Amino acid sequence: MYFFIKFFTERKETMKIKYFFLTLAIACTSAVFTSCDDNDEPEFPNPQPIEGATNAKTLTLGTESLSVKIGAENRQEVTVTDGNGNYSAFSSNTAIAEVAVSDGKILVEGKANGQADIIITDAANRFAKLPVKVYTTETMTLSTTTMAFKHLVGERRTMLGSVTLGNGEYSIATDNENVTAEIDAETGDFSVTAKAANDTYTATVTVTDCTGITAPVAVTVESTDDPFDDALIQTILGTSPVNYYLNYASTYYSKWGTIINAKQDDGSFTFGWDYYSYYYMKVNVPSQAEGTYENCTVNLAPSWSDADMRDVTNAKVMILKNDGTSVWLAFSYRNNDAIEYGYMVTSVVAE
Q: What pTM was estimated for this model as a whole?
């Protein structure tokens, strides 16, 4: 009998110890989950209505949202249309918007572009949330409001612009499939690329900021048979020798080719390069003096493909610059329904 009683007594103590550790484990687990929940709580107070306070009014604001311009001089008052008095207010992000209660007035001040929530509470622990958008300006200014393109049919050209005054988080859109645009959402720098068509057309590019303010860029696109506008000519003149370019094919093999610049027996001049007579780029022009020359001969084989080969007898050649050491030469011609062109910066021919 003694051993029977002792057995159950020791078993009871063992069970007590087990229950103690089980209870401790549950308590620790609850603490862990409570800690995680605390980390998920918002930084601003989140009061709840008092249960059983049937006489308390619902806290109602005079507006569902607020837009505030940056600056102390632009503070805006938040009106309470119904509530229980003794109001307090908190901002979810004081770097964007600050709020203060002074003489019963709830005043919001914009500090930086962006969005924040203002939480307002009253004496009955009722609360209301007010979304606030803070902005810098009510109008947007661009570095340019017009862009005029004029280039070859089917070719694309790009122009640049920027937002000089706006509220950030920029986006851009166009209303014509032949015009594309991209913008840096943070800086407001943008590019507009237009494809020339057979007929002149217009498009509108619209820049929008985070507050919904927009600014348009009026785009006009014309086509021309002359590929050498001022911008391209300046690009060519800014290119160092030796350099070769074609708008329809790569001049990759020129880096292994031999410069073939020479004066011909008839007094004309040939400029270009040759790679074992298999790949080449040859332009024949009556003179190497600066000027424009019509009906010149151009022979091109820039790749292995027969489709890239050209034997042209009616090319227009321009000697853009001759400084006595190097010559900057550009040429163009019509191939079927397209204008093809190229340029080279190479050495002058000794006469």
A: 0.57
